[in-house]
Design goal:
The chain is mainly β. It has no helices and 21 strands. The protein has strands at 15-17, 20-21, 24-25, 35-36, 39-40, 44-48, 58-68, 77-86, 92-93, 106-108, 112-113, 120-123, 129-132, 135-138, 142-149, 162-168, 181-184, 191-208, 213-228, 235-243, 246-254. The strands form 7 sheets. Strands 17, 18, 19, 20 and 21 form a 5-stranded antiparallel β-sheet that branches. Strand 17 and strand 18 (191-208) form a beta hairpin.
Length: 255
């Protein structure tokens, strides 16, 4: 009698169903995803091969290993499962204050997105404010809304837009007589006339006492122009006239 050595190799278990992986959000590691529902011919556990990896948004094919509890008699089995990686949300932070800006100002706009992606800006009234890159230039009187935008990318959803309203009104109002223009009658109830000393093109703006623009227009080649102010409420207003790179101001009263 005698003995012989018999090599018994570990068996390969059969994975009958790979587990499902719960969704995660971009920025989270694979370890934030929960594997559930997998089955195999022997008892064991499923785990990610690289749980620290942070995948891009989309569907990520993650390497998964089934490790039998009886590791002496069964080998591990590798496979992949799909992990849904949702886009992350982001917000814009914009702390600039536009209370003190004036006609002719040029301001550098700055805002940041929590994603680190660049923020862009738009103006809804280019007669008042124009934007070139990150520079805001005030080119007229009135109200404009400046909006900060971040449209997102493959990993981030668009950020909620942030808007700021600017109201550009004349400063240092001079209500003295105007040599180039006459404005009459003052006070007026229905109409006021603007009479220029020569035929020129000019723009006019009417602001109420709160600085709100209530009327505006462009006059072309008229000596006398009549404005209908019937819809204005009673009170004091400022008439601003711009011509030949010059701005002049006149106080008017609606009766």
């Amino acid at each position: 009698s005698g003995t012989v050595d018999v090599t018994v190799n570990p068996a390969t278990p059969e994975v009958t169903q790979w587990p499902a992986a719960s969704g995660i959000t971009f920025g989270e590691p694979l370890s934030a995803s929960i594997l559930s529902g997998g089955t195999a011919s022997v008892s064991g556990t499923f785990s990610f091969d690289d749980p620290a990896i942070i995948p891009d948004a989309g569907v990520y094919a993650a390497d998964v290993t089934f490790t039998p509890d009886d590791s002496d008699n069964y080998i591990s089995v590798s496979g992949t499962v799909d992990v849904t990686v949702n886009k992350a949300d982001q917000v814009i932070e914009w702390d600039q204050d536009f209370q003190e800006i004036e006609y002719g100002s040029i301001i550098t706009l700055y805002a940041t997105a929590s994603s680190g992606l660049p923020v862009t800006f738009i103006s809804d009234n280019t007669d008042v404010a124009i934007i070139t890159g990150n520079e805001l230039e005030i080119v007229g009187y009135g109200v404009a809304e400046i909006t900060a935008i971040q449209d997102g990318d493959q990993n981030y959803n668009p950020a909620p837009e942030v808007s700021k309203t600017i109201n550009i009104i004349p400063t240092n109002i001079n209500i003295n007589s105007i040599s180039d223009f006459k404005v009459y009658p003052i006070p007026a109830s229905e109409f006021i006339s603007i009479e220029s000393s020569e035929i020129i093109d000019y723009s006019y703006f009417i602001f109420d006492n709160s600085g709100q623009l209530v009327m505006q227009g462009v006059i072309n080649q008229n000596l006398i122009t009549t404005l209908n102010i019937t819809n204005l409420v009673k009170g004091s207003y400022y008439l601003i006239i711009e011509f030949n790179n010059t701005t002049i101001n006149k106080k008017i009263i609606k009766m």
